[in-house]
Every structure is written in C-alpha cells, then in structure tokens.
UniProtKB/TrEMBL annotation:
This is Type-4 uracil-DNA glycosylase. It is an enzyme of class 3 (hydrolase). Keywords: 4Fe-4S, DNA damage, DNA repair, Hydrolase, Iron, Iron-sulfur, Metal-binding, Plasmid. Coiled coil: none annotated. Its EC number is 3.2.2.27. InterPro entries: UDG_Type-4/5, Ura-DNA_glyco_family4, Uracil-DNA_glycosylase-like, Uracil-DNA_glycosylase-like_sf. Belongs to the uracil-DNA glycosylase (UDG) superfamily. Type 4 (UDGa) family.
Length: 286
C-alpha cells in the first residue's frame, strides 16, 4: 500500500518546482511515448533484413542518439520549434509595429508563439481598466488568479491595489492596467530576461497606443524594464523619471511604486506606498 505521506511529499515537490496547474484534460503517458514498435521476427532461413531497395535510407541521429526528428522519449518533434531569443524579439517587434489599435495588438499577442510561457499558461492576460485613462499601471506578470480569470491584478494583490487606489479617489474606471508579461510564469517565479525581451515590444506598443499622461510601474521588474535601470525598487520608488518612445508625442513621466504583493509581505512599507500615491495625485489631480 502506498503511504499517504509519500503522496503528499510528491505533491509538495511538484508545487515547489512550479507544477501547480493541470493544463490538459488527460495525463500524458510518457512510457507509451517512449515505447517503440518491436521488429518482427523473420521466418526461419530467411534474411532478417528486407532487400536493399526496400530499406529506408539511414536516418540522421539526434543529439540524444535517436533518429533526427524524434525526441529523447521517442515522440516525434514537429517542425514548429520554439523561436530563439533574438528571433522572438524580432518577430514580436514586427508584429507589434503592425498593430494600429488595441484590438489588433491583443490579436497579435495572442497569435505570438515566441515566448514559452504561453504553452504553460491558461490565459493571455492583456489588460483591464479604461483605455482612455491618464494613468497606466504596469505590473510584472499574472499570478494564479489572473491566469485563471484572464485579467491583471484580480487576486489578493489586486484587491489591495483596488483599496490603495480608492484611498486617493481612483478606481479601475480611472486607470489602465497591464503587465510586462501577458503569461504567468510557472509557480509565480520571476520572469527571465529572455521572456521579458520576447514580450517587451508588445508592451512598448501598448504604451504608444494608450498614450498615458503618467506611467506607474509596480515593482522592481516592471520599473527596471521600463526605465532600463539596474537599481532596485526601493531606490527607484517615489522618484520621477521619463519614458520615451518613437511612437509617443513626447516623454511620459514615470513614478515607480512598490508592488502590492511586496506590501502584503512587508506591511511596514505601506507608508511609503501611501506617500507615493499622494505624490501621484498631487501631480495628476484630475
């Protein structure tokens, strides 16, 4: 009999490595993929090999010792291989540049296959709020709740963000919200530089189409990506910067703030967040 504690330990291990979502209706049997058809026995006295003319041409070998075009498990590998980092960035930039509206940009993003996160996410999280708003908030990446619902900041962090905005007379009808990445990293891990580079052209075009009067990056990843700076969020928050892009009429003021998830882990930092919100409203009271 299998020990219940062994099952729980195995489940914890899967969660720790990021396997916390079932993305298929049926489990995949890797043992069946690895199985290969057995070679039929030749009749006694007959050659075990077919005539030379009927033999298939020798297959090239893969890096794992198997035939080219097959994975190390014996499953066929399709021609639609993932794009490399440079190819993904170039493809994203070309697709994003063609978008002339938010609808076209969202369609281009949903059709983009240059970021591997898309294969493990449940939904593409594009944006929420008012596209005509003056204030554009940009987070890091969707979490579990955001991935399920397909909207940014709808989990515990999102509820805190709503309360923070309400304290200065704002709500989702007065702001526009998006993320650096539209797909959830497994286990809510931090995004890699390759993932950010693949998705950044879409965000840059997103900002150009919205044309906000102020950008508010939430958290270190968002602030460092938008501003191309190396400092952490505790050094960047509460300071005004400029964001420039060829598709904008001029530089856009940027005010980095602490991410709501950080505030949940460090409640003492809420006073800095409150100060930053007041700074935002003093400069943009409308």
């Amino acid at each position: 009999m299998i020990d219940q504690s062994d099952i729980l330990a195995a489940l914890r291990w899967h969660v720790d490595i990021g396997c916390d979502e079932a993305i298929g209706d049926e489990p995949l049997d890797w043992a069946m993929l690895a199985a290969r058809p057995a070679v039929a026995r030749a009749p006694a006295g007959a050659s075990a090999l077919p005539p030379a003319a009927a033999r298939p041409a020798p297959a090239s070998r893969s890096a794992f010792g198997g035939p080219s075009g097959a994975s190390m498990f014996g499953a066929p590998v399709t021609a639609d291989l993932p794009l490399g980092a440079s190819e993904a960035g170039a493809s994203a930039r070309a697709r994003a540049a063609e978008a002339r509206s938010l609808e076209e940009l969202e369609a281009a993003l949903r059709a983009f296959d240059g970021c591997p996160l898309k294969a493990t996410a449940m939904n593409t999280v594009f944006a929420d709020g008012n596209p005509a708003a003056d204030i554009m908030l940009i987070g890091e990446a969707p979490g579990e709740d955001e991935d399920r619902q397909g909207k940014p900041f709808v989990g515990v962090s999102g509820k805190l963000l709503d309360r923070m905005l309400a304290q200065v007379g704002l709500d989702r009808g007065a702001v526009y919200i998006s993320n650096i990445l539209p797909w959830r990293p497994p286990g809510n891990r931090s995004p890699t530089q390759a993932e950010i580079a693949a998705c950044l052209p879409f965000l840059e075009r997103h900002v150009e189409l919205i044309k906000p009067k102020v950008l508010v990056p939430l958290g270190g990843t968002s602030a460092k990506t938008l501003l191309n700076r190396a400092e952490g969020i505790t050094r960047l928050r509460g300071r005004w910067f400029d964001y420039a892009s060829p598709g904008l009429p001029g530089p856009v003021p940027v005010l980095p703030m602490l991410h709501p998830a950080y505030l949940l882990r460090n409640p003492i930092a809420k006073r800095e967040a409150w100060r930053d919100l007041l700074t935002l409203r003093q400069r943009f009271p409308g």
